[in-house]
Amino acid sequence: MTAPGSTAVSFDAFYRAQHARVLGYFRRKAGRDAAPDLAQEVFTRLLRSGALERAECPEAYLTRIARNLLIDNARCKRPRPTAFYSLDEERDAVSCADQTWRIEAADLSHLYRRTVRAMPPKTRRVFLMRRVRRMSYKEIAASLGVSVATVDYHMVQALALCRAAVAAQW
């Protein structure tokens, strides 16, 4: 009969004695990046099996677990046959936006309209001249008799109001 905790002590000693060997094995077989994870998995499998105390040669049993783990990983990485299907234009065509997107777009449009109506008059005018009439900052400045910097200021204010309205809504 074994004393309580003796399995943990024996496993700890076995782990310390064999870890470097197992790690080196995996570095040669699987590479430096995968080696630590694979080594950890080998010792986890050994501990779960409970074979450390039953095996006549636990080092050989550990090596067998390591080989089996490499075989399992190779099976998982084996490329599967690729299936090719002909392109069906009707099935694979881009579908129109669904109803939810249309509703959200309409809600966003209403939000922008309310936000533009709530803007100060000069800011609203500059914003609409730029966004609706597609006028340049120079054209807006000439039309209103202000500097380009003033037009830029009002555009920044208008865009900040729009951003804040959207952020508050969603």
UniProtKB/TrEMBL annotation:
Any one GO MF term held by the record is: DNA binding
Indicate the segments forming the RNA polymerase sigma factor 70 region 4 type domain, all copies: 112-162
Per the record, a Pfam family? Answer: Sigma70_r4_2
Concerning InterPro entries, the annotation shows: RNA_pol_sigma-70-like (IPR039425), RNA_pol_sigma-70_dom (IPR014284), RNA_pol_sigma70_r2 (IPR007627), RNA_pol_sigma70_r4_t2 (IPR013249), RNA_pol_sigma_r2 (IPR013325), RNA_pol_sigma_r3/r4-like (IPR013324), WH-like_DNA-bd_sf (IPR036388)
Question: Gene3D superfamilies in the record, alphabetically?
Answer: 1.10.1740.10, Winged helix-like DNA-binding domain superfamily/Winged helix DNA-binding domain
Q: Which SUPFAM superfamilies match?
A: Sigma2 domain of RNA polymerase sigma factors, Sigma3 and sigma4 domains of RNA polymerase sigma factors
Q: Which UniProt keywords apply?
A: Sigma factor, Transcription, Transcription regulation
Identify the domain of life: Bacteria
Q: Which residues form the RNA polymerase sigma-70 region domain?
A: 15-78
Q: Please list the GO biological process terms of this entry.
A: DNA-templated transcription initiation
Q: What is the similarity comment for this entry? A: Belongs to the sigma-70 factor family. ECF subfamily.
Q: What is this protein called?
A: RNA polymerase sigma-70 factor (ECF subfamily)
